[in-house]
Design brief:
This protein is α/β, with parallel strands linked by helices and 502 residues long. The protein is built from twelve helices and 27 strands. An eight-stranded mixed beta sheet has the order 2-18-12-15-11-3-6-7, with helices on both faces. Helix 1 runs antiparallel to helix 2 and helix 2 packs antiparallel against helix 6. The longest helix is centred in the N-terminal third of the chain and has 31 residues. The chain starts with a helix and ends with a strand. 36% of the residues are buried.
């Protein structure tokens, strides 16, 4: 169909407007670089070049618009069962040492504990989760155990944000005597975009930690920021080949020797392995891996068209989800960053700042890079490798006798008769971690619990046992105290402490 003159004029005007925006952006970014101190100009230039590429992809419409009918489940060639992996001989200490000598462990440590009511200056990794141990304590204990047991030096790398860097640095001092080498670096910061002008509303790079005009662009920035830090080249020079990446709040993301052995022995044939696990009702918004035009692709909830959200949440159609546990070849990362071929989908995040200004953040996900690597595939791992703590209901689980900890590794208690974890829903009174802790004299026995719902002003005494399905509802203005040594099994507890069979 031949375009009408009006449509052609609109198209020409639109192109001219985009060219003008890109021209102004280029000038704005150059001015930011020029205002930056000489010692920081190289890093700032690299970060703003990455931002410019992301911006150009967004404004150019190169956002890989999803065609829903092209989505297919991963074929067998792209999805492997964990049980099919060749098991490493645990008695072969020499062989395991050689494997571990090639490994680097990286934890994503940019998040704060605001989701559990902590302030803007408290890294989530410093929340105590088990036996007075923080997420960071647990991680260091895991790596220290590997290093001591096999006589190796597996370094731990933390990708911090400006929000977490200072407090994390203070916390790391207590590990100076440990057998763990800890390296830290800062992820990039990009300028927020004003929704009205479609341009950055900040003019310089000063005080970005306290300036709402800047933001960390999601964990997809890991590749460029690791390269820019200089650590990527250093680790490769030391003979490191594989990097294991995971969220620091995923307590199940430990070093797995079977997966490590598989990717090391595959050489360059498998440069990227993503761990997935079976989806449950609690994971319906979790990203998943799909076959899209014959390639592995990460599909995040934010990318799903509104008319297909119910399809995406369907456990029968999308049976697996991404744990964000990733195993990647270091040389392959370096090659793609240097060539500028590391393509990731743009996630457009609309936000409102405290001053009422509407802004846009352009972000990427670390797992979205899977489509850029040769021989990339997924491994369907046991649920035990995904144990995230996102809210206090998760914290209640890992603090209870459902789990045990040894050498930093948290596993489900053998006394639990069911392989699945209980479904726990805690009301707003339990959201803030300080309030949550005050409501339990001791953490209840949850070994035989299936489902727990608690709302309102509820307090638990010492040595309480919860079994089956337990629902506790305190009406507004009322308080429920569960007595010490109580056993609640398939009960509903109302505001006046009536205990009914469920």
């Amino acid at each position: 169909m031949v375009p009408t003159p009006a449509k052609e004029r609109d198209r020409t005007f639109s192109m001219a407007a985009e060219e003008e925006i890109m021209s102004v952006l280029k000038t704005t970014l150059k001015e930011m670089i020029d205002k930056t101190s000489q010692e920081r100009q190289e890093v700032v230039t690299k970060e703003l070049e990455s931002f410019s590429k992301l911006y150009s992809k967004w404004r150019g419409g190169i956002t890989d618009e999803l065609i829903w009918d092209k989505i297919r489940p991963l074929p067998e060639a792209m999805l492997q069962g964990y049980s099919s992996l060749r098991k490493v001989d645990e008695d072969d200490h020499e062989g395991i040492s050689k494997l571990l000598d090639k490994l680097v462990v990286l934890k994503l440590n940019g998040g704060l504990g605001t989701g559990m009511g902590l302030g803007n200056m408290c890294p989530k990794s410093l929340i105590r989760v088990r036996e007075e141990m923080t997420f960071l304590d647990v991680t260091v204990a895991q790596i220290e155990n590997l290093n001591e047991k096999y006589g190796v030096n597996v370094p731990l790398v933390l990708m911090n944000s400006l929000n977490t860097d200072s407090e994390t640095d203070k916390a790391l001092k207590k590990y100076k005597g440990s057998n763990v080498e800890v390296l830290t670096y800062l992820q990039s910061y990009y300028p927020r975009i004003d929704r009205e002008t479609l341009l950055p509303f900040v003019q310089d790079y000063d005080n970005i930690a306290s300036n709402e005009g800047w933001y960390p662009p999601g964990h997809g920035d890991l590749y460029e920021s690791l390269h820019n830090s200089g650590f990527l080249d250093q680790l490769i020079a030391r003979g490191k080949e594989i990097i294991f990446i995971s969220n620091i709040d995923n307590l199940g993301a430990t070093v797995d020797l079977n997966i490590l052995s598989h990717i090391v022995k595959s050489g360059c044939q498998s440069q990227f392995i993503a761990e997935v696990t079976n989806k449950t009702r609690g994971d319906v918004k979790g990203g998943t891996l799909i076959d899209y035009n014959g390639c592995v692709k990460l599909l995040e909830y934010a990318q799903v068209p509104k008319e297909h959200v119910d399809d995406f949440k369907c456990v029968k159609k999308f049976k697996i989800f991404n744990t964000n546990n990733l195993w990647i070849n270091l040389r392959a990362i370096k090659e793609r960053v240097q060539q500028g071929t590391l393509d990731r989908d743009v996630i457009v995040n609309h936000k409102a700042l405290d001053d009422g200004r509407n802004v846009i953040q352009l972000e990427t996900a670390v797992g979205a890079a899977i489509k850029n690597f040769s021989g990339a595939f997924a491994i369907n791992v046991p649920r035990s490798r995904f144990l995230p703590v996102k809210q206090t209901s998760d914290l209640l689980l890992v603090m209870s006798n459902l789990y045990k900890i040894e050498d930093g590794t948290i596993t489900m208690s053998p006394d639990r008769q069911f392989p699945s974890t209980p479904l726990i829903k805690l009301g707003p009174d339990f959201k803030r971690i300080q309030s949550f802790l005050k409501r339990f004299a001791t953490i209840p026995d949850l070994l035989e619990l299936d489902h727990l719902t608690v709302t309102g002003d509820v307090h638990f005494g010492r040595d309480v046992s919860l079994r089956g399905t337990v629902i506790i509802i305190a009406n507004h203005g009322e308080r429920i105290d569960i007595p010490s040594n109580s056993l609640l099994e398939n009960k509903i507890v109302s505001g006046n402490l009536r205990i009914l069979d469920h």
